[in-house]
Design brief:
By secondary structure, this protein is mainly β. The protein has a 14-stranded antiparallel β-barrel. A hairpin with a 4-residue loop joins strand 3 and strand 4. The two termini are 45 Å apart. The N terminus is likely disordered.
Length: 428
Amino acid sequence: MRKKTLTLSVLAAAVTMATGQAQAAAFQLAEQSTTGLGRAYAGEGAAAENASVLGRNPAAMTLFDRPSLSAGAVYINPEVDVEGKGPTAALGQSQGLPTRSDDIADDAVVPFFYYVQPINEQWAAGLGIFTNYGLSTTYQDDHYAGPVAGKTSLTTINVNPSIAYRVNPHLSLGAGFNAVYADAELIRHSGVAAVANPGLGLQPTSEFVRLAGDDWGYGWNIGLLLEADEYNRWALTYRSEVDLTLEGDYASAKPSVVPGLPVGTNGQTVPGKLDLTLPAIAELSGFHQVDPAWAVHYGIMWTEWSSFEELRALGSNNGTLFQKDEKFDNSWRVSAGLTHQLNDQWTLRGGLAYDQSPVPEATRSISIPDVDRTWYTLGATYAVSQNLSVDAAFAFLDGGKVDVVEDGFAFTSGGDAYLMGLQMNYQF
């Protein structure tokens, strides 16, 4: 059992994020609300249909004249398959080791909670608890490509208190503080390395690498809301990067006398740490009520993935235990959506988005088998009363296929994902 360096507070533990394969670029998560999911998160910073807008733009809290609460979750069902190919896969097959893995990305439920409290006509405050990043992929313990397969997981939670100020009828500003808890685990097995190097005394299921750690990191976010009138709004937001040092344990079944990475520990556990930067995010959103029944939404998001250069685990003497180049590129996400007020009780939504992968072909991996994605989404709100409403949404993400070459292993990887969300909204 690894040692925890920090524990979650009671509030954070109540909504711990069991995140699965990230459903935006790389290990980014877009699922901060069910309302937004229905229109592919288009115009999310300017729509302000309920308190969940706090997950994207604190400045939009000035649009609320009553205390408001939103809470819900999005269920993520990814279907990602990976198949090995080439001479190394043939070697694995000759030894009876699996070379194909179906559904390697784990299902997950991603919850969220928001509360907005107007203070007066100019000031408002709020609290959001949600996540922006998460990942979980799992391969068979005896997978032939164990040195690059195995299990990879990242769980994060962001506790985000915010404040907003209305400068004048057309301009509002907002800012927030982000306390991010992250918990990560990386396990790799010997696979065909045990077959090709019998002198190591390993089995294909022997753990080549086990690295686990956690940390709290801190950042900030700001937002601007520009209102031409009550029917036309634009938002500009920025969320800072968060630096984490995940401290915990490292172990490897590899003999310590064998040189090279990963460093062997003969199965013994030693202290280890890994620096991880969660990238900064900037977003431009638009909302236009074109007539009483129809509204148009659009957005463009930029994520500074270039800050994710490598995964490097260090020991107590700062020596390198494990290292993998990532060298991500910055990426863009564009989205468009419609909202239709069908009647006093029903609101319908639809959306389309394109998510660009930040993973270069040269450093693509099967632990993050990322591809460009197209989102197709539908959603609806049912007004139970003047104060209470319920949202539901569904999304299909079309991911396509890519070829992956990693440390001498070759694969074909691809798949789609299905998302379903529920959310409750209440105005006091």
